[in-house]
Amino acid sequence: MRFATAAPALAVHAAWRIHGAGRLAVTALAGVSLEVWPGELVAVMGPSGSGKSTLLNLAGGLDQPTRGDVRIMGTSTVGRRPAALAQLRRRHLGLVFQELNLVGSLTALENVALPRELDGVPVRTARREAGEALEAVGLGHRADRFPARLSGGEQQRVAIARALVGGRRLVLADEPTGALDTSTGDEVLRLIRERCDTGAAALVVTHNPRHAAWADRVVFLRDGREATRSDYGAEPFGAARPADRAAPADGRGLSAPTAGGTLGAPGVEGPARGSGELPLAGLAAALEAPR
Ligand SMILES: Nc1ncnc2c1ncn2[C@@H]1O[C@H](COP(=O)(O)OP(=O)(O)O)[C@@H](O)[C@H]1O
Ligand SMILES: [Mg+2]
After folding, report:
1. Ligand in closest contact with the CA of 219
2. Which ligand neighbours the alpha carbon of 50 most closely?
3. What are 109-112's contacts with CB under 8 Å, separation 24+?
4. Dihedral pair phi/psi, residue 125, rounded to 5°
5. Does ligand 1 lie within 6 Å of residue 51's CB atom?
6. How crowded is residue 276: how many other Cβ atoms within 10 Å of its Cβ?
7. Where would I find the beta strands (DSSP E) of the chain?
8. Number of neighbouring beta carbons within 10 Å of residue 41
9. Which of 25, 121, 135, 232 is the Cys-Cys partner for 116 at CB 3.0 to 4.6 Å?
């Protein structure tokens, strides 16, 4: 369901991302446009190397488009200074990226509180919010555990809590369930869906057609472009969708497909890597500065 707001949470307009120059240039994204409005969950699917992570990095202000525009909560990331981008991210964005793992020397609670503390929220408040976010993902009883003493699924849920803490308005997730078992993966998607149903916007890369079916829209990428529905066949997601989940009525988003594509699109890549660990400085840097 799309909420009645003046502006999309995320607007990507004719965005290109070209690495390098001349004969060695690699086009990672070739003129993609899409909008994600408050209340919407938009899934991104496509084969390995099709530009999904590039799109997410642009959407998170972690990378800049070579051409085109990216607006987060109405503010363009183009030409913006790193400090301003970091502030934009901390204030509005929840990032669930494979590379952005938990800090091993911090407890679950401290991991979730960290982005809020970096944002200047008083420690006591940040920890209360973190406790609530952990409760919301069913991990209240694990708040004092260090990541090494949590299961893979629990670690992922801590990362989700960290992305949702403080009521972030735009959630970006790059294969958040790739390393999880079915029920934990479902739980993670359900949490993101719930946040969208209460007004957040989310852009989620997934290879799981069932999860894509919970999205309001699916954007298919191939070779850095939005693929047409026919590239993937004709079977619509509609049948697999929860009955209470209506597609946006007016199709105001710039991206074309409305819940299009097939179940089991061909050529999608395998499961994501397992979780590693970043030192505190690495995580802080990732939260603070574009890569
Ligand atoms: N830093 C980079 N330098 C050169 N090429 C890159 C870089 N990052 C990504 N690419 C290329 O851009 C394309 C899209 O990559 P990516 O967005 O990671 O795809 P996906 O997430 O869909 O697997 C790939 O061909 C990849 O090799
Ligand atoms: Mg990727």
Report:
1. 1
2. 1
3. 109/134, 109/143, 109/144, 111/147, 111/158, 111/162, 112/158, 112/161, 112/162, 112/165
4. -65, -45
5. yes
6. 10
7. 10-19, 26-36, 41-45, 67-72, 75-76, 93-96, 170-174, 201-205, 217-222, 225-226
8. 27
9. 121
- C-beta 149 within 6 A of ligand 1: no
Structure tokens that stand for 161 in this block: 């809590």
pLDDT tens-digit readout, 80-134: 999 999 889 888 999 888 765 789 999 999 999 998 898 889 999 999 999 999 9
54 lines ligand 1 (CB under 6 A): yes
- Give me the domains of the chain, ranges plus CATH numbers: 10-288 (3.40.50.300)
Ligand 1 neighbour 222 (Cβ under 6 A)? no
Q: Is 48 in the pocket of ligand 1 (CB under 6 A)?
A: yes
Residue whose CA is closest, atom 13 of ligand 1? 28
